[in-house]
Write a structure and sequence with these properties.
The structure is a homodimer.
Chain A (H helix, E strand, L loop, with lengths): L4 E5 L2 E2 L2 E3 L3 H5 L2 E9 L2 E2 L2 H15 L6 H14 L8 E7 L16 E7 L8 H4 L1 E10 L14 H7 L7 E8 L4 E4 L3 E6 L2 E5 L9 H12 L4 E4 L3 H5 L3 E6 L3 E8 L2 E2 L4 H16 L1
Parallel strand pairs in A: 8-9, 8-15, 12-13
Antiparallel strand pairs in A: 1-2, 1-7, 4-5, 4-6, 6-7, 9-10, 11-12, 11-14, 14-15, 15-16
């Protein structure tokens, strides 16, 4: 019998964190959500690279943390656990300590690994596409927090709480200047006059691992890639629109409020490339 | 023998939260830090009122949560525990559940009470004043998160990590438009041409309970109060500068980088009023 989840805290089976952990007190940490396929953690190096960038930004010592995480994951793999689950979430906090907001001078980061089953999408949104909406919440701009996947995610919670209609699969977020940023849980890309476009994430948003992978793959196959600051009208004029993250892979967007699209050729090509890369990685 | 801390989770002695708690996963919650004096929780009603405002903003059901918190606190008081400690921290999260960022439709909030000893300030900063600095980090602006004391506090952690010199007791924060907001752990007030001035907190910052108490007390004693958007130069031209929060009460600011002040008459008057109010509340 396979249990629903398996969680490790600092390498040991555990299911709780102390109240004094700074992840809980201040959102002082980072996370990664990684897809598991036949016992392999997909794009693992890219995930750990982003985690390292996050650690560096927050001044959480990345070593021996990253080495320990790799060892945990290798052990879970050789024990056959990775093959039993579909999702690996890594959560890293600055650990316990410090005085108020002041971080301890020598933090002992906490590392958590959570294995769980993959969410199921019986309506096959990767094939048929999804309807999305525009959120009212506007993301705050901060170059200090932009790009990394930190634990202070209350904006995403509030944005995702704006709707409960299960037929709407994602909400688009603009920033305070009304430029496009991302979805609540995904990155946003579109095709416009043959170019693959996506918002620059230097002021807000999370630099998704699949997003970055797709941008470099697109360049490799000769597709022009453009990152910039775009108003909503730019998206509405697009030929194809898609969302991506490490669990959904790529979902074509077929409707945003009154605007609709069909899943397009570039979207299908990128879906195919990602599938190939997953098999190879 | 008095232990260092006493912590209750949902009314029971406990020292950890489950990994699935949304406070840890997303900073999805709120907190309050309350001073204890001779077994009384100072300005408790105002703290619980701000907590309620936070719950309403985040759509965390405030009841029966607030009733349970009051019952916990009353019990700690009648057991004599409040008299043994100097600080009561309340932490409220949306609890466990939901799918990703989507909050559960009927959240079961988690409530945590943490009793600890009061930090000691042997150099008597309330009397002699403190030196402060200007932080490099600029607070992000978001009317969705402004004012409430939520758990997504990574900006404060990063700002407080900018210095370790213990002679510098606080760091001032500007917002992305370079207007004054607050300190990393305190609110900022100053006296200019007889008026008590403080930044408006509708775009960022925490609406401190002591700050709001002082603003209404100042009005009551005929002091003109002004909330606005101010550049740093406004502060530098002030006659008196002070910081406040629920643990430090009021600290006069005696130096910000090269600019210096002496603790002034309005500061002393407000310190006296606050002390009286504490004895009466």
């Amino acid at each position: 019998m396979i249990s629903d989840t398996l969680t490790l805290v600092d390498g040991e089976v555990g299911d709780s964190l102390p109240l004094g952990d700074r992840g809980l007190a201040y959102g002082d940490g980072l996370f990664e959500t990684i897809q598991l396929l036949d016992g392999r953690a997909l794009l693992l190096d890219a995930h750990l690279k982003r985690l390292r960038r996050g650690c560096e930004r927050l001044a959480i010592p990345p070593q021996p943390l990253l080495t320990s995480l790799r060892a945990d994951i290798a052990r879970l793999g050789s024990d056959g656990e990775l093959a039993r689950y579909g999702v690996l979430k890594i959560l890293v906090t600055r650990g316990v300590g410090g005085r108020g907001y002041l971080p301890p001078p020598d933090p002992a980061p906490t590392r958590v690994l959570m294995l769980s089953q993959r969410p199921e999408y019986p309506d096959d949104p990767a094939q048929h596409g999804v309807r999305i909406r525009l959120c009212q919440l506007r993301l705050a701009q901060s170059p200090w927090l932009a790009g990394i996947k930190h634990l202070s995610r209350l904006e995403q919670v509030l944005a995702r709480a704006e709707w409960r209609d299960p037929a709407i699969r994602e909400g688009l977020l603009l920033d305070q200047d009304r430029y496009l940023v991302e979805g609540t849980m995904s990155n946003l890309l579109w095709v416009s006059q043959g170019r693959l476009c996506t918002p620059r994430l230097d002021l807000c948003g999370v630099e998704g691992v699949v997003r970055n992978h797709l941008l470099s793959r697109a360049s490799e196959i000769g597709l022009e890639v453009e990152e910039g600051r775009y108003p909503l009208s730019q998206l509405e004029a697009a030929d194809e629109v898609m969302l991506c993250n490490s669990l959904i892979d790529i979902w074509p967007v077929v409707a945003l409020d009154a605007r609709s699209w069909a899943p397009g050729a570039v979207t299908r090509r990128l879906q195919g490339l990602l599938k190939e890369d997953y098999l190879a990685c």
